Amino acid sequence: MNPSTTLSRLKRLLFKTVSQNDLAKKSLSYKHTTIKLNKVKVIAGVGITTCVGYSFYHLLGNLKNEVKAASKPSPGEPDNTLPWYTISDVQNHKDSNSIWVVFKQGVYDITQFVQMHPGGDIIMKAAGSSIEPFWAMYGVHMQDEVFELLETYRIGNISMEDSKLAAKGAASDPYAFEPVRSFLLKATSLKPFNAEPPASLLVDNFLTPADIFYVRNHLPVPVIDEVSYRLEIQGSPHAQPVSFSLEDIKKLPPVTITAAVMCAGNRRSEMSQVKPVKGLSWGPAAVGNATWTGARLVDVLRLAGLNPDPDDRNVQHVHFEGLDIDLARTPYAASIPATKALDPRGDVILAYEMNGEPLTRDHGAPLRAVVPGVVGARNVKWLGKVILSPSESTSHWQQNDYKGFSPSTDWDTVDFSKSPAIQELPVISAICLPAPDTKVELENQTLDVQGYAWSGGGKAIVRVDVTIDQGRSWHVAKFTGQDSQAPLTRHWGWTLWKVTIPVDPNTKEVEIWSKAVDASYNTQPESFSNVWNLRGVLANAYHRVRVSLT
Predict the structure, then answer these.
(1) Which among 117, 296, 363, 368 is annotated as catalytic?
(2) Does the annotation mark 521 as catalytic?
(3) Which domain of life is it from (predicted)?
(4) How many CB atoms neighbour CB 471 within 10 A?
(5) Which of 402, 491, 535, 542 is catalytic?
(6) Residue 51 annotated among the catalytic residues of the structure
(7) Active-site residue 117, yes or no?
(8) pLDDT of 389-434, one tens digit each?
(9) Could you tell me the domains of the chain?
(10) Within 13 Å, how many C-alpha atoms sit on residue 282's CB side?
């Protein structure tokens, strides 16, 4: 099978279910020279957890069915039809020109996969060694299809003794010290932990309680001793850092802001109904609103002897590095423009309290960045370092994740370097009550609808429109929660709303639509068809909820 034929077939498979009749006609070899997933740029799961296992898990969706149809040895078990190698042989293949990894007793050449994968820099950390310690960090890979896809890169075997040597460290669980979470959170992944509450709970409180505030973790939650904790500040990428204790930060003038934090993938599950996307299947509750108390970033910088000018070409971005690290000790990191970070009206703070209480571990204790009006990915938790820089963070999550693309861009044509990193999020609304696909008992032949709305960049929500007749008539919602003290252009918190709609007695089912309008008169797109993107981010089309009426 030549590469172009393979590419064509895999492109079709990515968003198309293969019928059983088709599968019966297909014949795949598990040797290194046939179905080469690494011939394709259709590499999914970019940056969701940015790990080897997760990348394979999201690779080529329905291809897993085709792979299962072939005869093969069990993943990682010896295959006597292939050569045998030593651990030294594997360790000699750990640069970008030749990348071998080990899983159990299997040896795999993933060179071309890494070269074509936007997250290849992460995968390189397993080069010349076992993939198992990395997979222990990302539990989502523990599924048969992941192992089967890995087998397509199989080139040989390794002895049991060398296998144990290569996998040294895999037995320790990096998630052994995770915090206890509320039973109300619905997990979209366990390792790392990511979860959201039922959407119906969001409208109960203007300030979302910490225990039901959505959790977005990219790596294990670090164990941090507040007494020995230090925040490092660097005036440039190569400058000697200045460090401060948590008590040093708390001595600065405290500032409290009300701000919503939203995941870039909020409502991704709806966008995936147009066609598949790659990422955690978030519903409409990957968002929360809280008061955050801490020191202004500009005050912390002054404490470090820095008073940068936003117009200084050497200070165009501010990097945040977390204390959550992978096995190669690479931290989660992101950056924001200096124009946002250094402007006192940007209200960027280093927070140590949430809703008047010390931060919990899942939400960044002891110190986190709060960048109001900006996507959650830049609100770095467990903050360990702040760096002033002339350029953006080079982290995977800044360069190869959290970016939007044209609906026509697919995994064959995507170039992450051509798209800017998401900062401010677009205007959005969601219906929290009634819940989808439920039966609603009407009172006085009226339907109550409740939800939230928010817009990035500090733009206030000025109106929420709701319809139950496909847009022939619209009902303007009443605001039940909004920060009335916030200036119109520094409206960092969300808006809760409610509307009561009369219903015709003969109507037995309705589809409720909501759309929000912000202070710049931006509004939501009507459908996901024209805003679909392969990463499933920026999912802000009209929210639609279908219910039965009794």
Answers:
(1) 117
(2) no
(3) Eukaryota
(4) 12
(5) 402
(6) no
(7) yes
(8) 999 999 999 999 999 999 999 998 999 999 999 999 999 999 999 9
(9) 3-166 (3.10.120.10)
(10) 29
Annotated catalytic residue, options 58, 93, 141, 268: 141
Name the β-bridge partners of 513. Answer: 467, 544
Within 8 A by CB and 6+ apart from 458, the residues are 372, 373, 489, 490, 491, 492
User: Catalytic residue among 58, 93, 154, 216, which?
Assistant: 216
Using an 8 Å Cβ cutoff, are 152 and 36 in contact?
yes
395 with 380: CB under 8 angstroms?
no
Query: 275 in helix, strand or coil?
Result: coil
CB 268: neighbour CB atoms within 10 A?
Answer: 24
DSSP per-residue letters across 162-199: HHHHHTTTTTS-TTTTPPP--TT-EEEETTTTEEE--G
Full-model pTM: 0.79
Per-residue pLDDT of 476-508, as tens digits, reads 999 999 998 899 899 999 999 999 999 999 999
DSSP line for 313-348: TT-SEEEEEEEEE-TT-PEEEEEEEHHHHT-GGG--
Contacts of 235 (CB under 8 A, 6+ apart): 304, 305, 306, 308, 388
> Is 141 a residue of the active site?
yes
Q: How far apart are CA 407 and CA 291, in angstroms?
A: 36
